[in-house]
Amino acid sequence: MALFNRVTIVGLGLIGGSVGMAVKRRRLARRVVGFSRRPATLQRAKRCGVIDAGTTDLHRAVRDADLVILATPVDTIVPLARRAASFMSAGSILTDVGSTKETIVRALEGRLPRGIAFVGAHPLAGSERSGIATARTDLFRGSVCIVTATSRTNRRALERVRRLWQTLARHVLVMQPARHDRLLAQVSHLPHMVAFCLVAAAGDEALAIAPRSFLDATRVAKSDPWLWESIFLSNRAHVTAAMKRFERQWQMLRARLAWTDRPALHRFLVSAKSKRDALD
Predict the structure, then answer these.
(1) How would you classify the pairing of strands 121-123 and 144-148?
(2) Is residue 196 scored above 90 in pLDDT?
(3) How far apart are CA 78 and CA 257, in angstroms?
(4) With 90 as the cut, is the pLDDT of residue 176 above it?
(5) Torsion region of 91: left, alpha or beta (phi above 0 gives left; psi -120 to 50 gives alpha)
(6) Is 140 exposed, middle or buried (0-12, 13-18, 19+ CB in 10 A)?
(7) Is the pLDDT assigned to residue 82 strictly greater than 90?
(8) Where do the DSSP E strands lie in the chain?
(9) Considering its fold, how many domains does the chain have in total?
(10) Which of 32, 146, 197, 228 is deepest in the core (most CB within 10 A)?
């Protein structure tokens, strides 16, 4: 059953492309339209079944949509949202899939033209790869999506966005934008930063014999640097706090090695292993 008449996806990379595929496969919209600056991307998206139609004209892309999904880097979402909203009809909804939420929600919620609602969202799914060629229909299957809510959030729009993601993902969590950013800094943004640091810290001679464990631990360091630069900077307060938490653990571990405190080292490793095992 269609939840929307027309859905427009702005940005047809891994996430935007996968949203389009999933929405079409589950028939959640009668028509899916894509916006990209590159005609070649639109042509490929149509061939791959991501969209029904596409355009390089933002006005044409969003003017008849009842839901517009912004799937672009986090530092472009606010200006794109303001521009898109100026072309949208009253009663329509803007949402996004950005990896940070507090700055975006504060800038947009209740600040768009009358009758246009904004609801922040972040599906916790992705890959180190990017581009329309990497889009997958099943990218969100079994995943969690966080939808943000504040005292200013339009409840009808919130429910419609929540229903969309309830269909595409395994579970939807609704939380305040600041809580989202604090938690994601610890379990997504910091791990990416650590992966980049691990690669940077390894010498060329060591990298030449890097085992599978190193490749697994640093897989996300293959991610788009421009994309992650924007994420780190837009969530820098929470990322910095997460780094300080990590540094405390790192310094504790280093001290136990320096003191050859084997029992304490063992307890540390057992505790960490237990926490990781519980995630499975």
Answers:
(1) antiparallel
(2) yes
(3) 47
(4) yes
(5) left
(6) buried
(7) yes
(8) 4-10, 29-35, 53-55, 67-70, 93-96, 117-119, 121-123, 144-148, 171-175
(9) 2
(10) 32
Contact 119, 186 (CB under 8 A): no
CB 125 within 8 A of CB 143: yes
| pTM of the complete model | 0.94
Last residue of a domain, one of 175, 199, 218: 175
The residue segments making up the domain with residue 251 are 180-279
| Two structure tokens written together for 214 | 């190193």
pLDDT of 208? 97
Mean per-residue pLDDT, 144-163: 97
Give me the pLDDT at residue 100, please: 98
Which contacts (CB < 8 Å, 24+ apart) does range 183-189 have?
A: 184/99, 184/100, 184/122, 184/235, 184/238, 185/235, 185/238, 185/239, 185/241, 185/242, 186/242, 186/245, 188/99, 188/124, 189/99, 189/231, 189/232, 189/235, 189/238, 189/239, 189/242
